[in-house]
């Protein structure tokens, strides 16, 4: 696996792949890699001849009181994992490579960045959209892959790539879960053993709503109340949202639902804020 730290090295690597007509798939990450990231790398390997992963803990997507300083940074462990799964290149840019001095340009996906997590994390999606645009411009991949656990992020990036006519194919990869259903996340390590147990309620709430919808209950608020009740009974009281939305646009689902909808949950435990989602199918 090639380790790339400078723009010059990245340009040389990219032009070598182009000269050999090799397709490149890109997995942008913030490191602290887990099986969810490795599933992205494996999916990338199916879609291209060469896979490049970036690790950059992007300061502009963290709010002032969020966990930027304590976000886990494990470059050597990450590098060993990537090597093990057969990743071809690891891009480890420093701050100046991504944000040159006096950087003044940002990217905003208006509307989509204000709902759900965007309402509670002002500026977060502007930070994500900006860094992903910069990374895509630098790496120039044929395909870029993102985890569907961060569903709003996926929809927003797909929209941005379409709107800006960026020449890259965006793909979402299914969430990887622990055996008890908890979605893998680099932030799960912040949970105490008691909270780790409680956190399984997110997936329980989602699957229970899915069953209820399939069994014929189609009132949006009934499904939301049921999921909220499951979280509360598990001892989760700081619920940022439980919402049902159109899977493509994230518009709020109608009161009486007929089509597939996505249920999205965000809740705060003492150690970490967790998000999860599930596509609910009507039949
Ligand atoms: O999902 C993430 O890890 C980050 O939001 C991303 C896409 C790498 C941008 O910093």
Descriptors:
six-stranded parallel β-sheet; globular; 38% helix; alpha/beta; binds pantoate; single chain; Pantoate--beta-alanine Ligase, Chain: A,domain 2; Rossmann fold; three-stranded antiparallel β-sheet; 283 residues
What does it look like?
With 283 residues, the protein is of the alpha/beta class. The chain has two domains: 2-173, HUPs (Rossmann fold, 3-Layer(aba) Sandwich); 186-278, Pantoate--beta-alanine Ligase, Chain: A,domain 2 (2-Layer Sandwich), CATH 3.30.1300.10. It has ten helices and nine strands. The strands form two sheets. It has a six-stranded parallel sheet, with helices on both faces. It has a three-stranded antiparallel sheet with strand order 7-8-9, covered by helices on one side. The radius of gyration is 19 Å and the shape is globular. It starts with a strand and ends with a strand. The site of pantoate has 10 residues, from strand 2 and helix 6.
Strand order of the largest sheet: 1-4-3-2-5-6
Average pLDDT level: 97
**Strand element count:** 9
What is the CATH level 1 assignment of the largest domain?
Answer: Alpha Beta
Using only CA atoms, what is the Rg? 19 Å
Q: CATH H level of the largest domain: which superfamily?
A: HUPs
Question: SSE string, helix = H, strand = E?
Answer: EHEHEHEHHHEHEHHHEEE
Separation, N- and C-terminal Cα atoms: 45 Å
